[in-house]
């Protein structure tokens, strides 16, 4: 997509801190020193977080032997996003986002250290994991909208699509490395060391936030505290089809498709009988696919409702292929494509929102995105876990595939009907 098209969609001109001649590069936003530093810190931290997610899922399944309980734990971690996510977006619009992120990242590192200590001491129980999952979810509820909006302050409008896509590439590269490493560590020394490594990894992102050059960050005046700001944000979104359609699409997909900690963990154990190493390979395959797909999107990707609809359709088809895979090798190949279409779908929706949201509303808009993506898990996690308990993991994946295809149809119909008004 050209820069002119990005400006047309957003309704505003460029305010990028980056150089204009670098904007067509796959790694354009990394030319900005502040984003490069922030990106590096987040890469280390995200790798540790994926190690913890993999180890935590395996620990819960080992302690409980139940996919339903695993789904419940995943849901509990996302519950704060559902309950307070929109209000967290109000906070992200009111405060210094850099300072808020520093505090939250330090807090989440401490929670990982507590889980590591309990596990290494051999006293960890499912309820410990549940409580810490809720607290970690509380941190994510405030961190997600603040981080998304802060990226815009670092790179500006002309590079936001590239930065958002590279951020997704980074997350999924971490998804490729973290679970694979976690699978080895789980086999050799157990889950506790995965949690300990994650706790240390938060040092990197905290250090990067402290080291950023303040003079190179676009300053946005915090929104003054006032009554009704949450309702104001929701009314604003409802009036802009290019905002509410991506949010509605993600809500459906997030509820029923983005439950991979449940579906893949259960499939690795109950379908392919492969243990933690199989889970690591399956999750890593998604990550590698997302990295490859993300690099393609970063160089050539477009934003808007039509690309979002196509990405949702492709996402559903690839999940269906994974659900029907006859063996582990075929499943790994299918999951590579799942990762590719997953990052395409997420990046397209995220960038579409960022470029269409007014600066004073960006925190609240991105909070609703977090609610649609992560906050839907308290509904979908237990539901998919129960489906797996009653049937098998293939059916759980099939439900996710159907949700993506339904979301594509709904987005297409809504965009077609509302096009004259938008």
Number of strands: 0
Order of helices and strands: HHHHHHHHHHHHHHHH
Radius of gyration, rounded?
20 Å
Residues in helix, %: over 70%
On the 0 to 100 scale, the average pLDDT is 83
Q: In CATH terms, what is the architecture?
A: Up-down Bundle
Count of helical stretches: 16
CATH topology: Growth Hormone, Chain: A
The CATH homologous superfamily is called: MFS general substrate transporter like domains
- C-alpha termini separation: 20 Å
Major beta sheet, specifics?
Answer: none
- Domain module tally: 1
* SSE-based structural type: mainly alpha
Shape: globular
Share of β-strand residues: under 5%
Unreliable residue runs: 1-16, 18-23
CATH class: Mainly Alpha
Write a brief caption for the model.
It is found in: Cell membrane. The chain has 422 residues and is an all-alpha fold.
Describe this structure in words.
Helix 3 packs antiparallel against helix 15, helix 9 runs antiparallel to helix 16 and helix 15 crosses helix 16. The protein is an all-alpha fold and 422 residues long. It is built from 16 helices and no strands. The protein has a single domain, classed as Up-down Bundle (Growth Hormone, Chain: A). It is found in: Cell membrane. It is a multi-pass membrane protein. InterPro entries: MFS_dom, MFS_trans_sf, TM_effector. One of its GO terms (molecular function) is transmembrane transporter activity. Keywords: Cell membrane, Membrane, Transmembrane, Transmembrane helix, Transport.
């Amino acid at each position: 997509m050209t820069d002119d098209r990005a400006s047309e969609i957003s309704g505003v001109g460029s305010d990028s801190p980056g150089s204009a001649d670098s904007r067509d590069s796959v790694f354009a936003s990394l030319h900005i020193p502040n984003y490069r530093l922030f990106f590096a810190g987040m890469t280390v931290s995200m790798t540790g977080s994926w190690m913890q997610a993999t180890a935590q899922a395996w620990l819960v399944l080992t302690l409980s032997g139940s996919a339903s309980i695993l789904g419940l734990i995943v849901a509990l971690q996302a519950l704060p996003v559902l309950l307070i996510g929109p209000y967290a977006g109000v906070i992200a619009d009111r405060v210094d986002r850099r300072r808020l992120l520093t505090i939250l990242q330090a807090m989440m590192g401490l929670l990982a250290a507590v889980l590591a200590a309990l596990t290494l001491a051999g006293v960890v129980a499912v309820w410990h994991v549940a409580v810490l999952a809720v607290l970690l979810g509380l941190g994510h509820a405030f961190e997600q909208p603040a981080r998304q909006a802060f990226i815009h302050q670092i790179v500006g409008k002309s590079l936001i699509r590239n930065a958002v896509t590279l951020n997704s590439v980074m997350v999924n590269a971490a998804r490729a490395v973290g679970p694979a490493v976690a699978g080895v560590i789980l086999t050799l020394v157990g889950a506790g060391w995965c949690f300990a490594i994650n706790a240390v990894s938060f040092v990197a992102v905290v250090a990067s936030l402290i080291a950023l050059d303040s003079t190179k960050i676009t300053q946005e005046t915090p929104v003054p505290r006032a009554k009704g700001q949450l309702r104001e944000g929701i009314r604003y979104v409802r009036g802009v089809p290019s905002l509410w359609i991506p949010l509605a699409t993600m809500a459906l997909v997030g509820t029923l498709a983005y439950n991979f900690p449940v579906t893949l963990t259960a499939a690795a154990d109950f379908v392919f009988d492969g243990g933690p190493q199989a889970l690591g390979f399956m999750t890593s395959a998604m990550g590698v696919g997302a990295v490859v797909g993300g690099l393609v999107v970063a160089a050539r990707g477009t934003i808007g409702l039509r690309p979002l609809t196509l990405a949702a359709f492709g996402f559903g088809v690839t999940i269906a292929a994974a659900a029907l895979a006859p063996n582990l090798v075929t499943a790994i190949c299918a999951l590579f494509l799942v990762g590719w279409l997953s990052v395409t779908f997420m990046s397209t929706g995220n960038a579409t929102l960022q470029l269409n949201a007014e600066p004073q509303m960006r925190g609240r808009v991105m909070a609703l995105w977090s609610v649609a993506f992560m906050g839907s898990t308290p509904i979908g996690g237990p539901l998919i876990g129960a489906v797996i308990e009653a049937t098998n993991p293939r059916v759980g994946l099939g439900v996710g595939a159907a949700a993506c295809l339904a979301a594509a149809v709904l987005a297409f119909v809504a965009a077609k009907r509302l096009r004259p008004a938008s």
